[in-house]
Design a protein that fits this description.
Elements lengths: L7 H31 L4 H13 L4 H12 L2 H15 L1 H5 L3 H30 L6 H26 L4 H15 L19 H5 L2 H15 L2 H13 L4 H20 L1 H7 L2 H21 L4 H9 L1 H19 L5 H54 L2
Helix pairs in contact: 1-2, 1-7, 1-8, 1-11, 2-6, 2-17, 3-4, 3-6, 3-17, 4-6, 4-8, 6-17, 7-12, 10-16, 10-17, 11-17, 12-15, 12-16, 14-15, 14-16, 14-17, 16-17
């Protein structure tokens, strides 16, 4: 591809799609648990429903990765996946009981989780020699998350959480339409880039350890993504203020994405990953033990810059380095499946049972333990 760099005007469709994609995430993560809580589901049921939402990410991105790599048309498969999610989101409007919602989430999430890894792969290929600019494009996704979380928090305080499914479907329509602003592009791969068998790459100690560490770090976010809004609501905090707490974490994440290129020039990726995991452990201890003090919750939310922003940016760059050529889409899909998929599902399922058994202190203690295991493995094997 053209090595002259990436002109800003050619990247705005990528930024716009990230903005709307993560606007939907800014609708789901802060409020879906609260919505299920309003339907009188138990903590275990909420954990199970949210775990199902993440579980399909183990399989779906890998299937879509094969289709995308073989066809050489990643944007086409992003459009198909997004349209499927749009159609199936109607089930969230139609149903309000456990089993219909579970099956709706199972089908909806299969398509929803298929799109992002392929779009990430496309973005990295599109950037070419300018991969350091990924953070400046991806930060628009974080801005979308903030806009959705804050504006919907205000709406839910005034009109009730019951309008959540309608908001999700409307945003999905916009996400799907935004894919048609992205130009399909084929990329020429050099033979040496994919001479090594895919499974041989996965079995390399540094690759396998990174996948395990990503699983444990994402699993440690299970309580936060499932019950943080419920936790704050039970402490008497309004949905508007809860939305700003979520936004604060994402503002911190944006700072990491903005300065990512400078960080990567000055520090080794391994060092950044280790720092991120140490701060993740501290974050969960603070959130579980000091939740009655708003000041400490504000500090803990700022640590989202490390637990998600710094870790994700560093890990995805290593994945881009490990999986090249014809394996690039499958590599991104495997990373998504092992971390946000399996890790997210296990973390949220554990969160439901832990919350019912011991509330916030027990739940966040288990999350801190998961991150501690990740730290040990990363220290020993991640390179």
């Amino acid at each position: 591809m053209d090595k002259r760099g990436v002109d800003t005007c050619k990247c705005w469709p990528l930024s716009l799609h990230y903005f709307f994609y993560f606007s939907l995430l800014g609708t789901i993560l802060p409020y879906l648990g609260l919505y299920f809580n309003s339907l009188a589901f138990t903590p275990v049921e909420i954990g199970e429903l949210l775990a199902v939402l993440m579980l399909t990410k183990v399989v779906a991105p890998n299937i879509w990765g094969i289709f995308s790599d073989r066809s050489g048309k990643p944007v086409f498969w992003v459009r198909v996946a997004t349209f499927g999610a749009l159609v199936l989101s109607a089930g969230l409007i139609l149903f309000d009981s456990y089993w219909p919602l579970l099956f709706t989430l199972l089908l909806f999430s299969f398509f929803w989780h298929s799109s992002l890894p392929q779009f990430e792969s496309y973005t990295f290929k599109r950037l070419g020699e300018d991969k350091h600019r990924y953070g400046q494009i991806r930060l628009w996704g974080s801005l979308g998350f903030i806009v959705a979380a804050v504006s919907l928090g205000w709406l839910f305080d005034r009109f009730g959480i019951a309008i959540l499914p309608w908001a999700m479907s409307l945003l999905l329509l916009v996400v799907w339409l935004s894919t048609y602003l992205v130009k399909e592009q084929r990329f020429t791969e050099h033979a040496e880039h994919h001479s090594q068998h895919f499974l041989a790459i996965v079995r390399r100690p540094e690759v396998l350890s990174l996948l395990i560490v990503s699983f444990l770090v994402q699993a440690s976010h299970g309580v936060y993504y499932s019950f943080f809004s419920i936790q704050m609501s039970e402490l008497g905090i309004s949905k508007t203020l809860i939305s700003w707490l979520w936004a604060l974490g994402v503002f911190a994440e944006i700072a990491v994405f903005w300065w990512m290129a400078a960080l990567f020039r000055q520090y080794a990726l391994r060092s950044l990953i280790l720092i991120a995991i140490v701060l993740t452990v501290i974050r969960w201890v603070m959130t579980g033990q000091l939740d009655h003090y708003l000041y400490w919750i504000l500090v803990a939310q700022l640590l989202h810059a490390a637990s998600f922003g710094l870790f994700h940016a560093s890990a995805i760059h290593l994945i881009d380095r490990y999986f090249t050529g014809a394996h690039h889409g499958k590599g991104q899909a495997l990373f998504a499946a092992s971390s946000h998929g399996l890790g997210g599902a296990v973390g949220m399922l554990t969160a439901g049972y832990a919350w019912q058994a011991g509330g916030a202190p027990l739940s966040y203690a288990l999350m801190a333990l998961s991150a501690t295991f990740a730290l040990v493995i990363a220290w020993r094997w991640v390179r």
